[in-house]
Amino acid sequence: MRLHGYLLDIRHVLEHPSIEILSGYAETLSRPIEQGPIDGEVPLTPIQRHLLDGFERHPASEALPAAMSVLLLAKSGFDEQPLRAALKKIVEHHDALRLGLLQQADESVTQAHKGLHEELITLEVLSLTGTESEARSQMEAECQRIQSSLRLFEGPRVRAGLFRLDSGDHLFLAVDPLVADAISWNILLEDLATGYGQALDGETIVLPDKTNAYQTWAEHLEHYANSKELLKEQDYWNKIELSEWRTLPKDHEVITDSGSERQTHQLHLQLSTDETQHLMTQVNHAYNTVPEEVLLSVLGQTVSEWSGQERIALYVENPGREQAETNSLDISRTVGQFTSVYPVVLDIKSADDIALLLKRVKETVRQVPNHGLGYGALRYLTEASNPTDSKRFRHPEIGFRYIDSPHPESVYFSISPLQAEIGPGTKDVIIGSSYALYMDSRLEDGKLSIRISYDRNAYEERTVKQLFSRFETHLLNTIRHCLDQSGQELTPTDVGADDLDLEEFEEMKHFYESL
């Protein structure tokens, strides 16, 4: 249907087996989806401009200060030639992986697609010897070297290393964060499994059809940035930026304008399978929440208790793809950087009251218009006006990301158990390096993995360990609290009463219950 310019949600297919009924749910895509190579310039999107702002202190000749990376394990080994063929097909098929930045004479930055004849990916193959420990150390060093070879204005956007160890082959993939996001990894790994399997069997590699190009999305955002719909959000974002909140306490004073790069370190926590299952399902019944809202609530509670502050400001990173669905764009299989980054200020009064805290945080999050997409568009793309002057806006020191889509499974490879060890050294957090504290949560093998990165120039490890321990305690207490609730408490956004605050809603509810 996509090839013919129509979009149909799979849930409607399952609910309505009749073609006659289904036809009423089919949406016309903005234009037929091009299956050939996409050429030409692509407008920089808000998230790309946001990332470039963070990269501006780093000379183009130096390594990118952050990147996306993954380490795969094939216990039975990779066949080199089919692997090369699959990787080559992937970077040709996904047009965003061919994007290259151009520095103009006026020092402005643009981007355009490279040709298929240019070098789009590198793959190095190394056999590592010595003991298993020595081989792992060599691999970690090589992964850091490969990732450090990514450059802002030159070279391919994807670099790979194949390491042959006695315990199996490891494939390291590093991608420029300007051209891929966390959801893109799932697409890339699915296609790697498909392409590698086809090449291994001697077949021609045929990947699933393309969805709307990143170029189409970028052009849509340019139009959206100057729409009346978006300008209605300006007062909301101005209010958020002008909110009062204090900076976080530090172990050491940090001079932020010294030009030096933050030195980040990472701690890791993983819930059990049962705890994860509870958090994903039963926990959310008590207050009609989603896992992201529960995690934000616990993070706010923990930071408030530690800092003594009742207003906690943070940047939330959202996948950013939801808005496309409402504009008849299909980007379900589009590789690109779609993340929305926007500020949220949590009101953590009565932090010991878990029920009240969850409801307040839930309402705060759900009041954010369009999943935060408009914030970046207003700041970076809108011609007439932007949110408050960025020079007056103090950027939050905490970042938060939650990803609920685990990496796909494959018969050929899996995520390496060494990923956690290699990741921190290769700076696997793309935006987190700009924060004092950054929490990244995602599902891995049926368990929720939570990583907190911190600025080692600002904090001693023991401080963050204590903070993380408090977070774990509060999270488990919150899970138990929600499981103990027999009924369900709704909040204003659940019943369409968005104009009421939580206190007004509670008073009204109690009034009607007393009648």
UniProtKB/TrEMBL annotation:
Biological-process GO terms, alphabetical: lipid biosynthetic process
Pfam families tied to this protein: Condensation
Domain Condensation residue range list: 40-499
Gene Ontology MF term list: ligase activity
Top-level division of the source organism's lineage: Bacteria
Keywords: Ligase
Gene3D superfamilies: Chloramphenicol acetyltransferase-like domain, Nonribosomal peptide synthetase, condensation domain
Coiled coil: none
Protein name, entry field: Condensation domain-containing protein
Record organism: Paenibacillus polymyxa (Bacillus polymyxa)
